[in-house]
């Protein structure tokens, strides 16, 4: 039942902020709940559209008189834009609108800059835009734009910006905010007193999201109403930001996203293309589609921040961790962007029980495109270093790496002193992964010849997966006994549409084929949060369940009247309303909804707050086996076994898919993916899918998902947490640990490219003993 | 640093008849228009996806005279007299066996690369109705999937071959002729 109470304390207590209380208490589906639809594999509801090419993506919108837009981008990593002459471009037949710093509205963007700024800060920064009748004409027009630049000193890499003589990229220097420091206990003293200390300097490359569908949108005005079909993970965020940028009230902006070709964190906010398309459309008086090309996608629409991490672990001889120290440097690119939250220090503070921890995280500007969240931002980078350091510590101590982790088990969030919502979650992952893989710390049999095999282990925690309350859902019961669920959330390719419909069907007591789920439209659905942080199922599942429960209560009240039976004797199951649980006296839901039609049952539901006294986390553990060719430096994955605490598994097939997908991206992060920047020129050398190497079908081994599937009933009433991001986190360190196991070299720089591996093997002397 | 760029010389539009999914489509096109843009923008066949537009990813794969080809690397005017099949040309009232297999095997997540993957497998099964696992993998090596559905795509390829074999058996005869594409 939807309730919302608003209070503003006037008694001098609290900070005077308005408090909103909502979310009726629902008893959670426990581990033994008899569920008919939730927990079962069901094919994606949108499958037929996707396999026939009918699914409508932002790129596929085709409106009458629609124009195509293209953006002119800076060829300089840092320059002043002295003059832009667009007259020749505007005069080209077929061009209908042009925008640049000369004539665009002064719309604030990226900290203190503008939509079209007089200073460009990376190769790919927006300089001008055109809308034309075809992509060919639009590109011709861009070539006619004459720009006078005054190049400025630049620093395009983390190494360059950390040099003492680096140019000042901002008036206040090159630090993007004050360093973030965390401290508990006394790690310096603990390190001095430790029986064993391992220390290492690690680095991770910038990875590029490379969602198959680029960023982009189609913008159309009807009078003063703007509609944007956007490839976004958050229709409500885009609406709020676009309305603000254009000075429009929110009810005159509608953002729609039905299907999207991937996001992986880079599509959480309104990007410049949204507002540029809207402005061009208004200027031209015609709809405008502005989709980024692949190069722009890789230059200007987000990347995973490169890091350097200096790690020290101290331990007693029995493996008890006594100190963790990490200093992290990371490059955020030219601007700090909303949605970027790469907390690289977090995992050091929480994954293992340790009384003495200090982290320092320094974020620097560089003249490259802005970094933005990329699937488990921060934790992927941190895990690469921390989980290798743990492996190294285990080897120094002569302990099984898994046993070392068990001896340092954290059952609570040590930064807040709160127990985890499922304290045994990580332990269950250890058990399941090790058992399914057949984990043997003795490793692989020693081999002769150039190919060596090894096994590796890594674990992770993750702050995502808990959901982002609030969020809302409605349920309508149609006259024919079918149901429509309406939310404002998104299915970004995860299968959320199906998982949420299963929750609705479960609570409604309807077969899944009698439930439709509508999402991705600010005009028709209630507010829902961004689909990031592995949050959609955990955010909106409980709201859908609450709305369905509300509808069922109304349905049974109506049935009580039509059937002349007390409502508390009625229940609904399999599309039928049962009396005292008796199928023989059941009527179909449609009998009741027909009877009252055209009156309609409307359920409302909200996502109540997360518990305040518990920390909700997701956990995982991975085992991998690799084969290393010591002659070519090639690392071949032979198999991966993974276990994750994502609470209740709503749809096993969809969770399996998320897991194979996350691990596939992890393989890329580990072995091949690296944005290459030429520091002398400030150029990204591989902003394409030819030279930026994402995994192909040939690179992915069999992946086994050892289900944990214990409902987290403390987390929310569905017991389900997120799984989108976690599988990627431990993959790279597990692979690096397996490579060490195979050939005895520790590669502390990601990706573990062939050249790095060959260099390390050469330094070690491969022709003799490979095991150190 | 000024450079003078003259406006492009207008190029006459060229008449071309594209034969797509069994129908003839007379069009007037710029000679530089790719088959991909002609399909998506002139014919409204948006099932064929544009991802890299430079022959790196395979999302725009269509069948040209029965062979899987990247439509972003073909000029539309060069495709007159050739038979083009897009994802919209597969199946009928029922799904094509490959489409059915993709749904059953959850061989996608976001779905953006899916039409290209399916077309690559269609070309394979037309040429090799009983493919080996290696042939299935080889058929989609030129199709990137950023969501990482590869393991399920391989399963779907195998499943599709089985579904087709079953359908052939049900039809009672194995004439071995691939459908005309």
Automatic annotation (TrEMBL), chain B:
GO terms for molecular function: 2 iron, 2 sulfur cluster binding; metal ion binding; oxidoreductase activity. Pfam families: Fer2, Fer2_2. Residues 14-90 form the 2Fe-2S ferredoxin-type domain. Keywords: 2Fe-2S, Iron, Iron-sulfur, Metal-binding, Oxidoreductase. This is Periplasmic aromatic aldehyde oxidoreductase, iron-sulfur subunit YagT. It comes from uncultured Thermomicrobiales bacterium.
């Amino acid at each position: 039942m939807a309730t919302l109470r608003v209070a503003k304390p006037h008694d001098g207590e609290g900070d005077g902020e308005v408090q909103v209380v909502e979310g009726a208490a629902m008893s959670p589906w426990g581990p033994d709940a008899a569920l008919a639809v939730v927990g079962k594999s069901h094919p994606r509801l949108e499958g037929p559209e996707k396999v026939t090419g009918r699914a409508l993506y932002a790129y596929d919108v085709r409106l009458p008189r629609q124009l195509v837009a293209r953006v002119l981008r800076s060829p300089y990593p840092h320059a002043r834009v002295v003059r832009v002459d667009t007259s020749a471009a505007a005069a080209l037949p077929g061009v209908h609108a042009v925008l640049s710093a000369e004539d665009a509205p002064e719309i604030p963007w990226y900290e203190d800059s503008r939509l079209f700024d007089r200073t460009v800060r990376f190769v790919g920064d927006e300089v001008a835009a055109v809308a034309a009748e075809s992509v060919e004409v639009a590109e011709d027009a861009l070539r006619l734009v004459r720009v006078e630049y005054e190049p400025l000193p630049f620093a395009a890499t983390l190494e360059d910006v950390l040099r003492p003589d680096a140019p000042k990229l901002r008036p206040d220097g090159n630090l993007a905010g004050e360093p973030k420091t965390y401290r508990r206990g006394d790690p310096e003293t603990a390190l001095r007193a430790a029986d064993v200390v391992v220390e290492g300097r690690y680095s991770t490359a910038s990875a590029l999201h490379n969602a198959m569908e680029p960023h982009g949108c189609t913008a159309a005005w009807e009078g003063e109403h703007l509609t944007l079909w956007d490839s976004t993970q958050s229709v409500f965020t885009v609406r709020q930001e676009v309305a603000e940028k254009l000075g429009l009230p929110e009810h005159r902006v509608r953002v729609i996203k039905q299907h999207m070709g991937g996001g992986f964190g880079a599509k959480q906010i309104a990007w410049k293309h949204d507002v540029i398309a809207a402005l061009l459309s208004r200027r031209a008086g015609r709809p405008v589609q502005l989709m980024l090309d692949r190069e722009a996608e890789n230059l200007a629409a987000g990347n995973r921040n490169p890091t350097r991490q200096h790690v020290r672990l101290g331990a007693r001889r029995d493996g008890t961790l006594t100190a963790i120290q990490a200093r992290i440097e990371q490059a955020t690119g030219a601007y700090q962007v909303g949605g970027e939250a790469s907390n690289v220090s977090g995992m050091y503070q929480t994954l293992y029980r340790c009384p003495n921890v200090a982290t320092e995280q320094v974020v620097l500007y560089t003249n490259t495109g802005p970094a933005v969240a990329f699937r488990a931002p921060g934790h992927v980078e941190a895990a690469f270093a921390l989980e290798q350091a743990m492996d190294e510590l285990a080897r120094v101590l002569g302990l099984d790496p898994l046993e070392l982790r068990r001896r340092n088990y954290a059952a609570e969030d040590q930064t807040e002193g709160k127990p985890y919502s499922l304290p045994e979650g990580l332990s269950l992952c250890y058990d399941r992964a090790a058992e399914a893989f057949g984990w043997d710390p003795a490793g692989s049999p020693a081999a002769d010849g150039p190919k060596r095999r090894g096994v590796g282990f890594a674990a992770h925690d993750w702050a995502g997966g808990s959901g982002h309350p609030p969020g809302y859902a409605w349920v309508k019961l149609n006259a024919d006994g079918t149901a429509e669920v309406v939310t404002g959330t998104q299915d970004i390719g995860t299968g959320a549409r199906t998982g949420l419909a299963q929750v609705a069907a479960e609570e409604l007591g309807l077969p899944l084929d009698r439930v439709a789920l509508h999402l991705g439209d600010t005009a028709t659905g209630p507010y829902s949060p961004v689909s990031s942080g592995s949050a959609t199922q955990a955010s909106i599942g409980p709201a859908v369940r609450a709305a369905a429960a509300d509808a069922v209560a109304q349905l049974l009240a109506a049935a009580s009247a039509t059937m002349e039976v007390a409502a508390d004797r009625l229940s609904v199951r399999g599309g039928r309303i049962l009396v005292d649980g008796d199928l023989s006296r059941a009527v179909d839901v449609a009998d009741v909804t027909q009877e009252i039609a055209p009156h309609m049952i409307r359920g409302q539901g909200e996502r109540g707050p997360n518990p305040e006294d518990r920390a909700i986390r997701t956990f995982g553990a991975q085992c991998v086996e690799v084969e290393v060719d010591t002659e070519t430096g090639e690392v071949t994955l032979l198999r991966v076994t993974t276990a994750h605490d994502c609470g209740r598994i709503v749809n096993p097939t969809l969770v399996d898919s998320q897991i194979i997908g996350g691990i596939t991206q992890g393989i890329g992060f580990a072995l091949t993916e690296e944005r290459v920047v030429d520091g002398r020129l400030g150029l990204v050398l591989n902003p394409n899918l030819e030279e930026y190497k994402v995994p192909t079908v040939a690179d992915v081994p069999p992946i086994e998902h050892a289900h944990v599937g214990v409902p987290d009933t403390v987390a929310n009433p569905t017991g389900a947490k997120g799984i989108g991001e976690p599988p990627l986190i431990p993959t790279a360190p597990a692979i690096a640990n397996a490579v060490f196991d195979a050939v005895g070299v520790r590669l502390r720089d990601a990706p573990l490219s062939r050249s790095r591996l060959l260099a390390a093997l050469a330094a070690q002397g491969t022709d003799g003993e490979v095991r150190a | 640093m000024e450079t003078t760029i003259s406006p492009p010389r207008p190029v006459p539009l060229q008449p071309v008849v594209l034969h797509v999914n069994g129908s003839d489509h007379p069009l007037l096109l710029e000679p530089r228009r790719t088959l991909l843009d002609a399909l998506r923008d002139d014919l409204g066949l948006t099932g064929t996806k544009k991802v890299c537009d430079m022959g790196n990813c395979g999302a725009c794969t269509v069948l040209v005279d029965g062979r899987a080809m990247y439509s972003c690397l073909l000029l539309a005017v060069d495709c007159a007299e050739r038979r083009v099949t897009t994802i919209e040309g597969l199946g009928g009232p029922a799904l094509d066996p490959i489409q059915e297999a993709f749904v059953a095997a959850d061989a996608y997540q976001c779905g953006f690369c899916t039409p290209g993957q399916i077309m690559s497998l269609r070309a394979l099964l037309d040429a090799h109705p009983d493919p080996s696992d290696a042939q299935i993998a080889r058929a989609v090596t030129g199709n990137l999937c950023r969501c990482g559905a590869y393991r399920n795509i391989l399963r779907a390829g195998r499943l599709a071959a089985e579904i087709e074999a079953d359908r052939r058996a049900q039809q009672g005869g194995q004439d071995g002729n691939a459908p005309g594409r």
